[in-house]
Amino acid sequence: MKKLIVSILTFFVVLSASAHAVFIETALKGVKGQSHTVKVVYGEPDEHEDISKWWWYKDGMQVDLTLIKPDGSTTALTTTAQGNHLLATFVPDQEGVYHVSLARDTERREGAKTQYQINALASIQVGRSTVGNVATHIVNDLFVYADQGAYKNKKEVSLALYEKGKPAAHAFFQVIAPSGWIRWVETDDKGVARFTPEWTGKYFVEVSKKEKVEGEAFEEYSRATSMSFEVK
């Protein structure tokens, strides 16, 4: 019984225990030829901090996002400040899977031993085509990839974690359910984590990993990444 209780406490915690993160919020389905809105937010899902409080961004209220089209071509999306989020839009000109990514080293204080890096990813299905639904189009140092546009409730979900272009084996990340609970999942030898969702709606994922470095003005990289996926 004691082991069971420990397991429950390990795998399920309330959302308030989650650290703040940078998320890309957007509709996970788009329409060719129609403007699509993308938001960059900081905080917790549905609980966003004002831009003025964002610790990770100090060079002005603008962040460049990378839009990766289904054919693999890329373009920059410029954001504008909107109170508690940054806003960008684009018009899909082809059907398939688009990816919007953010990758940024935060401002590091002189003498600090850790360099923090923010990564975020959103994948958007336009039409029924699956062209572009490949992790190789994404170049972030750390990201979680969902190989389906949407998953079914009560059916197993597979998510792959990549670090510097390679599957990250035996790493933990948080899956935040629409109910407000978090489940910790671990990747296997191939960098894939599996779990069975209990609710429908939009799920968020957060991951953080550290890497020792040499030859730099700091001793380690601390990377964080986030993404979302849908369960129907």
Description:
The protein is mainly β and 232 residues long. The chain has a single domain, classed as Macroglobulin (MG2) domain (Immunoglobulin-like, Sandwich). The chain is built from one helix and 20 strands. Strands 1, 3, 6, 7, 10, 11, 13, 16, 17, 19 and 20 form an eleven-stranded mixed beta sheet that branches. Strands 2, 4, 5, 8 and 9 form a five-stranded antiparallel beta sheet that branches. Strands 12, 14, 15 and 18 form a four-stranded antiparallel beta sheet that branches. It comes from Sphingobacterium psychroaquaticum. Residues 1-21 form the signal peptide. This is GH25 family protein.
Which labels suit this protein?
232 residues, mainly beta, Immunoglobulin-like, 11-stranded mixed beta sheet, 5-stranded antiparallel beta sheet, 4% helix, disordered N terminus
Count the beta strands: 20
**Which outline best applies?**
globular
CATH architecture: Sandwich
Stretches where pLDDT falls below 50 for ≥5 residues? 1-18
* Alpha-carbon distance between the two ends: 34 Å
Give the % helix.
under 10%
CATH class membership:
Mainly Beta
Number of helical elements: 1
The tally of structural domains comes to 1
**Sheet having the most strands:** 11 strands, mixed
Which whole number gives the mean pLDDT?
87
SSE order, one letter for each helix or strand:
HEEEEEEEEEEEEEEEEEEEE
Structural class, judged by helices and strands?
A: mainly beta
CATH superfamily: Macroglobulin (MG2) domain
Q: What is CATH's topology name?
A: Immunoglobulin-like
Estimate what percentage of residues fall within beta strands.
over 45%
Rg measurement, Å:
18 Å
Organism: Sphingobacterium psychroaquaticum
Protein name: GH25 family protein
Keywords: Signal
Signal peptide: 1-21
